[in-house]
Amino acid sequence: MSREAIEMNVESVTVEAADTKTIRLTWPEGHNPEFKTGQFITCNWPDEPSYRRAYSLSSCALDRGFYEFTVRRDGKMGTRLVDWIKPTQKLVVLPPAGRFLPVYEPQKHLICMAGGSGVTPFRGFVREATRQKLETKITVLYSVRTPKDIIFNSEFLQLARENPRFTFAVTCTRAQPADQWSGRSGRIDAEWVRQQVGDSAETIFYACGPTPLVEFAEHIVLNDLGVTKAQMKTEKWG
Questions:
Q1: Which sign, positive or negative, has the C-alpha torsion 79, 81, 84, 90?
Q2: Phi–psi pair at 204, nearest 5 degrees
Q3: Do strands 53-56 and 40-44 pair parallel, antiparallel, or not at all (unpaired)?
Q4: Fewest CB atoms within 10 A around its CB: which of 45, 105, 115, 152?
Q5: Residue 138 and residue 125 in contact, taking contact as beta carbons nearer than 8 Å
Q6: In 3-state terms, what secondary structure has residue 101?
Q7: Do 6-97 and 109-237 agree at the fold level?
Q8: Burial of 193 by CB count in 10 Å (0-12 exposed, 13-18 middle, 19+ buried)?
Q9: Is the domain defined by 109-237 classed in CATH 3.10.350.10?
Q10: Which residues contact residue 75 at a Cβ distance below 8 angstroms, ignoring those fewer than 6 apart?
Q11: What does the pLDDT look like over 104-150, one tens digit per residue?
Q12: How confident is the model at residue 33 (pLDDT cuts 50, 70, 90)?
């Protein structure tokens, strides 16, 4: 695929949480790229060509005619996008790249650990698997501060209803009584991950999000569970 940057129109901006938005970019006429679910795009504003930032796609390869990526208010680029992006504006986009890809094999179980906006590529994983009616089992273990910080909650719950091989599990680290949270509390830990594992040899572990979370997930998988490094895929930032 050509690595030529292309200017794209912002079609829509959707609020996912107080500090998080999903941006949909429309492909220009005649643009029909081949790419893979789990990859990322690199964007910049037309007036700041030297400042680029990579974002995981939260759409999947079956979504044609547009890219979607989901941004948290963080850093120069993330803050400008969340606070100022509007439909009809434009972003300059480098085509998808990256190797953080789902292994869609019938006997595999993908255990996907995420923190905050790190859940974004897993939306694409599950979208594709559900639409294709794949036999691959997928479990998303998602750590957020409070219930209000859950991104894609309604869509993940709907996908879980449609796909019996998909499990969506959330844990809150700072839930307060006023949140009326009845789910799991605390961080992702080795015991919680271990409970999800059936045949460890057929399990692929993914971790995406802030560096401390991803490194802790790596420690759980490689040390506490004793899984081979080949079965661990990570994407981290910050």
A1: positive
A2: -110, 130
A3: antiparallel
A4: 105
A5: yes
A6: coil
A7: no
A8: buried
A9: no
A10: 53
A11: 999 999 999 999 999 999 999 999 999 999 999 999 999 999 999 99
A12: very high
Residues 6+ apart with CB under 8 A from 98: 38, 39, 40, 56, 235
Q: Locate tokens 């400008």: which residue?
A: 80
Q: How far apart are CA 197 and CA 225, in angstroms?
A: 10
210 residue type, one letter:
P
The structural domains of the chain, with segments of one domain joined by +, span 6-97, 109-237
- pTM of the predicted model, to two decimals? 0.95
Topology of domain 6-97 in CATH is: Elongation Factor Tu (Ef-tu); domain 3 (2.40.30)
Residues 6+ apart with CB under 8 A from 222: 229, 232
Rounded Cα–Cα distance for residues 232 and 130 (Å) = 23
Written as six digits, the tokens of 183 are 């789910």
pLDDT in tens, 154-188: 999 999 999 999 999 999 999 999 999 999 999 99
Residues 49-94: tens digit of each pLDDT: 999 999 999 999 999 999 999 999 999 999 999 999 999 999 999 9
